[in-house]
Amino acid sequence: MDTHEELAPGQGHPWFGRHRLRPAAPAETIRRMLRHELRDTGWPYQKILPAAPIAIPRASYAEIFRVSLALVDLLRRAALESGHTTADRLTAYEMPATEDRLWLRDPFVEERYADSVVRPDLVIGPDGPQFLEFNVSGALGGVVETQSRLSVWRGLHADEEGRTPFRSPSPFAVRAEMFRALSAESAVAPRVAVVGSARVTGVERRYFEMEADHYNSHGLTARFFEPEELHEAWDCAPRLRYPVGLRNFTIPDWLDAGLDTTPVQDALDHGCLLVGTQTSTFLHSKLTMGLLSEGRPWMTEADRGLVARYLPWTRILSERRTDRGGQPVDLVPFVLKNRERLVLKAALGESGRQVLIGRRTEQAAWESAVGEAARGRTSVVQEFVEPATCRVSLIADGIDEPYDADVAPVLGPLLFGGRPAGLFCRFFGDGSAGIVSVRGGTSSSDNVMVAI
Known about the structure:
- Strand 5 (117-125) and strand 6 form a beta hairpin.
- The protein has 14 helices and 21 strands.
- It starts with a strand and ends with a strand.
- It is globular and about 60 Å long.
- The model has no long low-confidence stretch (mean pLDDT 95).
- 44% of the residues are buried.
- By secondary structure, it is α+β, with helices and mostly antiparallel strands.
- The longest helix is centred in the first third of the chain and has 24 residues, at 58-81.
- It has helices at residues 27-37, 58-81, 86-93, 107-112, 143-157, 171-186, 205-216, 251-256, 262-269, 280-284, 286-294, 301-310, 331-337, 363-376, and strands at residues 4-6, 19-21, 48-50, 54-56, 117-125, 128-136, 191-195, 221-225, 244-247, 273-275, 314-316, 321-324, 327-330, 342-346, 355-357, 379-383, 390-396, 403-407, 410-416, 419-428, 444-451.
- The strands form six sheets. The chain has a six-stranded mixed beta sheet, with helices on both faces. A four-stranded parallel beta sheet has the order 8-7-9-10, with helices on one face.
């Protein structure tokens, strides 16, 4: 059976390639398998699901990860260079007091593992990939989802010898290797604590246990810990301790759920290394993107060229002068006059919250938001990127057969310990574009991109 099909000319941006994978089973079979894999995790019900993995050329796939790794290196340096100490950086970023916690005692280790878990978000613009933000945190969305989607696609598309017509790493397998390397570097036993809570809105216990179960079946010892259980990771015989682990939560989510972070600090103080460390918050902040886009004194010509090609113009918003296309501009007046070309983003935020798209905002509301953000100096403005589309095959509730649609995906390459770990993507199944959060819209869908 021919697993590939060629797209007609003009269908989708050339970056996505000219071929795709055919659906390998009836719609109801695919629907049932996709929902079974993500059962009892808290992942929202989706009326529209993918009928096959989104396939892109190997060169496009490689470009995403090559550039992601290079930009994360620059992001890390820009964040650490903003202050000599953690206290200096907290001041420079004007971080909320809630983020001044969960630091490791050893600043070298704290900084060393800040970028262990990363997922940039990007779209394909008219001229290729454009990186819109960098999610740097152990609590990234898309990991369990990508693992689950890949499990379905491998089951459906593999031949009798287990070979698939596409390539993609397994997120859990790459993260397991990250923990093996981390344990070796720290000279400790490879026993992994997965730290999170099923009391956070939108997530259930199985979401964490899936990862721990994978590690346990692949040569690591792992356990999921709720915060009140975490003392069992260190207050025990040395051979039973969990010296490394994943910090699969955010401080704001735990505070919203009424959860105490003290047990995590106790674990850190007693030698448990949880990644990504709290320093990741500086890399996660969109202010760091603004620093890179504007340029840092230590950047080489090659660094600046990379940033200019792959980052949309981004500036930290305040009453000041900057450059735009090689010309000096007064930033706030420029932003007020060019609403339809810009996006306003708070430095910290998740799932598209604290983001205002100028062309979808009334001028009065835009002026009010820009004025408030300029006074706070913890927001950025960014060039709006019109996302390109690709042709995909979908299945929807109430429809018996897969059908074609043009969607504008947001790509999320997963990077663990500096290694590619899969390419998560999400999109509006109705073909619209905008802030895509699977947890935030009834027409939002997700899938995994693979290389062919």
